[in-house]
Design goal:
This protein is an alpha+beta fold. The chain contains 29 helices and 17 strands. The strands form three sheets. It has a six-stranded antiparallel β-sheet with strand order 2-3-1-9-8-10, with helices on one face. It has a six-stranded antiparallel β-sheet with strand order 4-5-6-7-11-12, with helices on one face. The longest helix is centred in the middle third of the chain and has 19 residues. The two termini are 24 Å apart.
């Protein structure tokens, strides 16, 4: 796991200086070393976190002729198999690095080399004789790659902050990305929150001939046809078990110790169980974050799982402090944060004290059907058969009498959610199922300042979800899962896991996101994923082979979704510090009256805007840090002031933190 950067430009002097600034911005991703390559057209840089070939795996890597140069972030899990095949074919390797197989495969297969890789990766390969750059991102987007192309040339990097550091010009906010964030709580590729900076989508590659425009195309996609429906259930369980076992074996490849996150939920508990029972890993280091909120504290369950499988269990109980950590989260993500990022930050910081590599459960919900909305959206279709007049004139007023505040899964919220969805259909219904708890189109129109509306009317944030849903085949569930795997998975939990863990120099690995396992899951019939109100049916059946019923059947808790409801005291301070004196309002991007109304309704419990206010607070802090140039330290000071009227006038750093 590392940080990479590359520049293609004829300006050698400016390029060398810019590359060094980029690598400095990526130091947290690779605290173990740095390497660079320069020629007359390109510069490549690498920050290293040593996991495989600790002594000899320094990058950039090259071939024997020193004509091909590579920087890669990630792990190639099948590199040993590939290496044997390539050596038999006569290729002479210079290191024992897993990433060196990419160079050999390029010499054998050209751009189609990516079809031979099994792992998580983002890389940039410079073909010096052809003056050509090839960059690619793994199947499901576990590793990030951002790029910029302008009059100065082309540059790409593992994180946005590196591209910002390479450019002396002030960054500008991307309104389309802000619109997506407010609607969906994520920003889909190719957008980022910054104008001119793009995100390479998962399963895509980019080619650039020096002097030309970059070309981007798809090289992998999830299959969309059921092909395993004819087999009996036990046979499918055996096959799923074999796929997970293979993925786990591959994800254990490392020259340093490997641990595992253990939340007590289905995903992490199944992985830990199989590591102990199927792969016979003894005293596996496991890590859990305990909380004082008993209803949401999964530590007791995690402890039971750890005891059951004899892990070397580590648990830390924490009291989250939103005001203290929000600037750190935004600095790590480069974009507005999310409750999940706070939880991941605390767990990653704790885990890194013990191990350098950790296995996690990302991907299970999206591949096997783990969210309530998967059956809730189907229920909305049935409710939609009630005559519209009856729904509007009788049922809606009745639902309005039921309180919604206090918890996003309350009966009041569920009924309002179903009612809202019943007036949509197809992909629009699925998009509405996500925007309901944030800002749907009507709410966004009221939220934006009047000056923004002409530009905003040309935007369509929900299209990020509707497009893959409409392009998928199969029934409603298959389309929802495909859309989530394409959009939500890489741009929300996976993005947060990568950025937050790497902020602590911790490599996170996700066996459920092995592309062979993902392809098998995609080919399963819908009935093996969601059956009535039973989510992740086949995964639960498999887990029953390892876990006792009292652990398997416990309700899903999850701390991050409840966060806006648990820390109301700190929230009050954040409202006062961030929204009462909003710079987004001052700069005529958002409407202050609408924000004041949301805060008033929420604090008096007339309505539940907990998730919406979280988005606004984080958008405001992001804007102050990245666009206006406030330092983390100054933001921390502002957030610590109890009375916002006591705050001194806004000050900027003498140098912008993203353009040091």
């Amino acid at each position: 796991m590392c940080g990479i950067a590359a520049i293609v430009s004829p300006d050698r002097i400016g390029r060398d200086d810019a590359l060094q600034r980029m690598l400095s911005a990526l130091q947290h991703r690779g605290p173990d070393g740095e390497g660079v390559f320069h020629d007359e057209q390109a510069s490549l840089g690498h920050r290293r976190l040593s996991i495989i070939d600790l002594a000899g795996g320094k990058q950039p890597l090259c071939n024997a002729e020193r004509t091909l140069w590579l920087v890669c972030n990630g792990e190639i899990y099948n590199y040993r198999e590939l290496r044997r095949e390539l050596e038999l074919d006569g290729y002479r390797f210079l290191t024992h690095s897993d990433c060196e197989v990419i160079i050999a495969l390029y010499q054998r297969h050209g751009d189609r080399l990516v079809e031979h890789l099994r792992g998580m990766f983002a890389f940039a390969l410079w073909d010096a004789p052809r003056r050509r750059l090839l960059a690619a991102r793994d199947h499901l987007g576990q590793k990030p790659l951002f790029y910029r192309f302008d009059a100065q040339g082309f540059s790409c990097a593992s994180e946005i902050k590196a591209l910002l550091a390479s450019d002396r010009h002030p960054p500008r906010m991307n309104l389309a990305a802000l619109d997506q964030y407010l609607a969906l709580r994520l920003i889909d590729a190719p957008l980022t929150m910054f104008e001119g900076i793009l995100k390479l989508p998962p399963g895509h590659l980019l080619t650039l001939q020096a002097g030309d425009m970059p070309q981007v195309r798809t090289w992998w996609d999830l299959p969309q046809q059921e092909t395993v429906a004819a087999r009996n259930e036990e046979s499918l369980l055996d096959e799923l078990e074999a796929h997970i076992e293979t993925a786990l074996r591959l994800h254990l490849v490392s020259d340093v110790p490997v641990g595992a996150f253990l939340s007590g939920g289905l995903d992490s508990s199944l992985l830990v169980a199989m590591l102990a029972r199927k792969l016979h890993v003894e005293r596996l280091p496991t890590f859990t974050m305990g909380l004082k909120y008993q209803r949401y504290d999964e530590a007791p369950t995690a402890r039971l799982v750890a005891n059951l499988f004899g892990t070397d269990h580590h648990e830390e109980r924490v009291q989250p402090q939103i005001t203290a950590l929000l600037p750190d989260l935004i600095a790590a993500l480069d974009e507005p944060s999310d409750p999940l990022s706070l939880c991941t930050w605390l767990l990653a910081k704790f885990t890194r004290r013990h191990v350098k590599v950790v296995i996690g459960g990302d991907g299970g919900d999206e591949l096997f059907g783990g969210y309530d909305r998967y059956y809730g959206t189907l229920y909305a279709a049935h409710y939609g058969k009630v005559p519209p007049a009856l729904r509007r004139n009788v049922l809606a007023p009745a639902f309005a009498l039921i309180p919604e505040s206090g918890w996003y899964k309350s009966v009041g919220h569920q009924l309002r959610w179903l009612h809202h969805l019943s007036f949509h259909s197809g992909s629009a219904r699925y998009a509405a199922s996500l925007t309901y708890f944030y800002f749907d189109r009507e709410r966004r129109q009221a939220l934006l300042a009047e000056e923004m509306l002409p530009s905003w009317l040309q935007l369509d944030a929900e299209a990020a979800i509707r497009r893959p849903y409409d392009n998928a085949s199969g029934g409603t569930l298959e389309r929802m899962l495909y859309a989530d795997s394409k959009v939500r998975l890489p741009n929300h939990p996976v993005m947060i896991t990568d950025r937050i863990c790497m902020a602590h120099g911790l490599e996170a690995r996700s066996p459920f996101m092995d592309h062979k396992l993902a392809e098998f899951a995609a080919r399963l019939p819908a009935s093996m994923k969601v059956r009535g109100r039973t989510l992740r049916y086949i995964q639960r059946r498999l887990a029953a082979r390892y876990l006792p019923a009292h652990l398997l059947n416990r309700p899903k808790q999850g701390f991050s979704s409840a966060l806006p409801y648990l820390l109301q005291a700190e929230y009050a301070r954040l409202y006062a510090s961030c929204l009462a004196n909003s710079t987004l309002v001052r700069d005529r991007i958002l409407d202050g009256r609408t924000i004041a109304r949301l805060v008033g309704e929420h604090t008096t419990r007339r309505a539940d805007h907990g998730n919406r206010l979280w988005l606004l607070i984080n958008a405001e802090l992001w804007y102050r840090m990245t666009i206006l140039g406030h330092s983390k330290e100054h933001l921390g000071y502002e957030l610590a002031v109890d009375d916002p009227t006591d705050r001194k006038s806004t000050r900027l750093n003498s140098s912008h933190p993203y353009r040091s």
